[in-house]
Specification:
This protein is an alpha/beta fold. The chain is 34% helix and 17% strand. The chain is built from 15 helices and 18 strands. The strands form six sheets. A six-stranded parallel beta sheet has the order 7-1-8-9-11-16, sandwiched between helices. Helix 2 crosses helix 15, helix 3 packs across helix 5 and helix 9 packs across helix 10. The relative contact order is 0.13.
């Protein structure tokens, strides 16, 4: 019998440390406590590199506050014996870059993990060696990266099972807020002027722009409206143009270059979204029972966004009432107006997973003793700290190993409107609302 597949944990946007390797010793540019916006800002003439050169900013470790418990719990509970570890690898990546770049890096990392795993005697001597695969856990943007990787590699991808946690498969309104104001429930709350400028030149952020219709007003807007530069306020292009004047090389007029740059990032992100939306699990040799899609609910979340005409341009009409939580409402259409504080329910629904197989979790699912996580959730939001939930750790272990729920300590909720819940985990307990 083969031991469980090795596991790779793919974090969300901004959740990997960034370090500049040009100085000796290297200097940390982005950590839980350090946010060097100027030094991580990308060059307008080549978004692969930093605006302030010479530099070489590369990814480092994952945020401990969000992923340490998850990684350690999986390492401890996936193994049958202490002498036979199940590898659980964190995958740090440069979260500024387009997801296609990160997906290629993930492909290389998967090959490395398999090669390293085969050096363990209990794997090399087992059935695992005949068909080596990995399991993947993706949180937030990490889920989009996994879906994009599988959509590209298809059956060449050596992947057994996938878990995604609060992944914005169809986007989040918070990405729009981040671009236009510099502040949003996607990460840090640093001074908005510096953060806004860095955000507007971060290609990965545009991959999180919403593509779902439910909640974007007016309802007459065409599909993919937010990926059309004409529907964005002029200040976005003006900021990029000003940045080109200050940091760019001599060339075309800054405004024209800014428009081309902005339009290019939007088109690149939209092409990726369509590719993921058209993905079928069978293309990668997976079934509906090979993917556990967990959605965070029952937290006040931005579930609406209104575009209004302002002269020749559009502008976003932001209202506090756009943040809502109707979880538990008798009308399923109304109950979908919820989320995890960052990703609305509509944005978290994966197009390639059967709706009746979705598993919803709430802040109420933290255990009695998870006092610190409850406190952090109130301060930082449910979305970012969701991977710390002890119940989810047990749920993932059950999903990867097929173990029974001996102590009845895993559960979930169906999506609104689902009467016949068929979770990919056999016998998953239905959590009754308080």
């Amino acid at each position: 019998m083969a031991p469980p597949n090795p596991t790779i944990v793919v974090p969300g946007i901004t959740a990997t440390y960034l370090k500049d390797h040009y100085p000796l010793p290297p200097e940390k540019m982005w950590t839980v406590l350090t946010k060097e916006f100027e030094r991580i800002a990308l060059h307008p003439d080549d978004l692969r590199y930093e605006a302030i050169e010479p530099a070489r900013v590369v990814p480092d470790q994952l945020y401990e506050i969000a992923y340490k418990e998850l990684v350690e719990e999986l390492r401890f509970n996936l193994r049958e014996k202490e002498s036979q570890p199940v590898p659980v690898f964190p995958f740090g990546y440069d979260w500024r870059q387009p997801l296609e770049i990160t997906e290629k890096e993930l492909a290389r990392f998967i090959e490395e993990v398999i090669s390293r795993t085969l050096l363990l005697k209990h794997y090399a001597k087992s059935e695992y060696a005949n068909d080596p695969k990995v399991n993947l856990v993706g949180h937030s943007m990490g889920g989009l990266i996994i879906a994009g990787y599988l959509a590209s590699e298809k059956k060449k991808a050596p992947v057994g099972k996938v878990v995604t946690l609060a992944a914005p498969f169809q986007g989040s309104f918070e990405a729009v807020i981040k671009v236009i104001t510099g502040t949003a429930d996607l990460g840090t709350k640093a001074p908005s002027s510096r953060e806004r400028r860095a955000a507007r030149l971060t290609p990965a952020l545009y991959h999180l722009i919403p593509s779902f219709k439910n909640g974007l007003l007016p309802e007459s807007l065409p599909d993919g409206a937010l990926f059309d530069h004409a529907n964005w306020q002029k200040s976005v292009i003006d900021t990029i143009a000003d940045y080109i004047r200050n940091r760019g090389l001599p060339g075309e007029a800054p405004t024209k270059r800014a428009l081309n740059l902005f339009d290019g990032m939007l088109k690149q992100a939209y092409a990726h979204r369509k590719r993921v939306s058209n993905f079928n699990l069978s293309d990668a040799g997976l079934t509906q029972d090979d993917w556990l899609a967990v959605i965070g609910v029952n937290a006040k979340t931005r579930v609406r966004l209104t575009l209004k005409k302002a002269g020749q341009r559009m502008h976003f009409d932001l209202k506090s009432a756009d943040r809502d939580n109707r979880w538990g409402h008798a009308d399923p259409a109304v109950a979908r107006m919820t989320g995890d504080g960052t990703v609305p329910f509509e944005g978290a629904v994966p197009p390639f997973i059967d709706y009746q197989k979705l598993v919803c979790v709430s802040p109420d699912d933290y255990g009695y003793w998870e006092l610190q996580d409850r406190a952090v959730t109130k301060l930082a939001g449910f979305h970012g700290i969701l991977p710390n939930m002890n119940m989810l750790h047990r749920l993932i272990v059950r999903f990867f190993t097929g173990k029974k729920d001996k102590y009845k300590n895993t559960w979930g909720r169906p999506a609104p409107g689902v009467d016949n819940w068929v979770s990919p985990i056999e016998g998953l307990r239905l959590r009754e609302e308080k």
